[in-house]
């Protein structure tokens, strides 16, 4: 589409503003139609039928690391080699990640000379743009964050290898390895190998491998991710990686089941700490999930139904970006094969302004900067688009407004 003058753009913007819109594109939540897919699950545990396959009573305490049938599903889901390498926990993987860091701070890992919290400085590498809540966990515990560029193959490994080799206060790195939040990229084979192999000055270094979108493909064309635990074991770095995932965007967000995968010794470390904070997880919900999905194949089959609902929403976002901004050299965006986000880069120094313009016109977007540590996008250019929750009509309207805001901010620059 031909470029409009600043005056024409302003007129268009004012017209949208006058409509009193109230559209929300902030968080990556499943839409109601997606949540409906899992409703039958709610009828699978009844007052007469609530036992595990082995006949355990789910109404009572116990089973710290999950019921056996759910551990089987998580073994395949997290791609570990045995159920000894799995904990099936409560409803949230973020809680498991937070608690891992909390325990490292208070007690340290088995190889830590002192708990992280008693060391003068603890730093984490934060590939960015990345997931805002990983960064808030670091901030919450006073862990210094170092921004590392995210490439289309994963974290910039030249930067990562150099930093971890020379600074022993760098204790870990966050990675969303598949269909990453927000860029949608998947770590290449080489990136996984380098992460597994690299020399780290810190002996208790951990990769926080948040595989939140492992089965969240948008079509048949899918990204493949190398098995990180196997890669680490091959390099003799068995303890390096902690893998997380959940059913939040498979069944019910906030009422799914979360799990952690790692070497058996890391799992035992986590279980010892877990036993101080709980006598066991919600096994009733685990039975519900195990009965509904049956096995990992059942999970994969279910995700095709999600894709049928959300892929058209992603397509609509991309189509409008192409139509309104394509060829104008003012913005670039990702076209992910899975996950929950599209990442939009607008002209340097205008992301905050674009988000404000959109907000004033009734379109709420994730705060500019949120995808970077300390909410500071050094180039002020990244905006995260979350298309799953709004209806198709709302998405199209919101994207048209956003496209005008991007052009207006670019014209004002
Ligand atoms: N990890 C990533 C990368 C996410 O994008 C999200 C939610 O948006 C989560 C974790 C949260 O997962 P959970 O609901 O299991 O805590």
Automatic annotation (TrEMBL):
GO terms for molecular function: transaminase activity. Keywords: Aminotransferase, Transferase. It comes from the Bacteria. The keyword Cell membrane does not apply. This is Aminotransferase class I/II-fold pyridoxal phosphate-dependent enzyme.
């Amino acid at each position: 589409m031909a470029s409009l003058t600043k005056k024409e753009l302003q007129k268009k913007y004012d017209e949208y503003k006058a409509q009193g819109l109230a559209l929300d594109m902030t968080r990556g939540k499943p839409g109601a139609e997606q949540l409906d897919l899992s409703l039958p699950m709610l009828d699978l545990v009844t007052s007469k039928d609530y036992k595990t396959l082995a006949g355990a009573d789910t109404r009572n305490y116990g089973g710290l690391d999950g019921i056996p049938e759910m551990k089987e599903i998580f073994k395949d889901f997290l791609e570990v080699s045995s159920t000894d390498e799995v904990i099936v926990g409560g409803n949230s993987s973020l809680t498991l990640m937070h608690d891992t860091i909390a325990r490292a701070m208070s007690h340290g890992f088995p190889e830590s000379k002192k708990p992280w919290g008693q060391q003068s400085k603890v730093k984490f590498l934060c590939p960015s743009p990345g997931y805002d809540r990983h960064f808030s966990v670091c901030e919450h515990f006073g862990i210094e964050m170092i921004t590392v560029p995210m490439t289309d193959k994963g974290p910039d490994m030249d930067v990562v290898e150099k930093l971890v080799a020379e600074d022993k206060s760098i204790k870990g790195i966050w990675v969303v390895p598949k269909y990453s939040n927000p860029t949608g990229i998947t770590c290449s084979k080489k990136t996984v190998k380098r992460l597994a192999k690299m020399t780290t000055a810190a002996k208790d270094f951990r990769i926080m491998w948040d595989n939140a979108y492992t089965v969240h493909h948008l079509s048949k064309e899918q990204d493949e991710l190398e098995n990180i635990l196997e890669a680490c074991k091959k390099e003799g770095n068995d303890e390096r990686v902690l893998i997380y995932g959940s059913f939040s965007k498979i069944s019910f967000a906030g009422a799914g089941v979360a799990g952690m995968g790692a070497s058996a010794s890391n799992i035992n470390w986590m279980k010892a700490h877990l036993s101080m904070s709980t006598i066991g997880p919600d096994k009733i919900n685990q039975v519900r999930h195990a009965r509904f999905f049956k096995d990992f194949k059942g999970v994969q089959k279910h995700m095709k139904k999600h894709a049928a609902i959300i892929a058209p929403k992603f397509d609509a976002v991309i189509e409008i970006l192409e139509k309104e901004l394509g060829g104008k050299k003012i913005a670039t965006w990702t076209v992910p094969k899975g996950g929950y986000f599209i990442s939009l880069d607008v002209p340097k120094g205008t992301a905050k302004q674009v988000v404000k313009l959109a907000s004033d016109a009734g379109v709420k977007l994730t705060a500019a900067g949120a995808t970077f540590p300390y909410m500071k996008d050094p180039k002020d250019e990244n905006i995260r688009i979350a298309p799953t929750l709004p209806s198709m009509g709302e998405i199209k309207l919101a994207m048209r407004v956003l496209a005008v805001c991007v052009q207006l901010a670019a014209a004002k620059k």
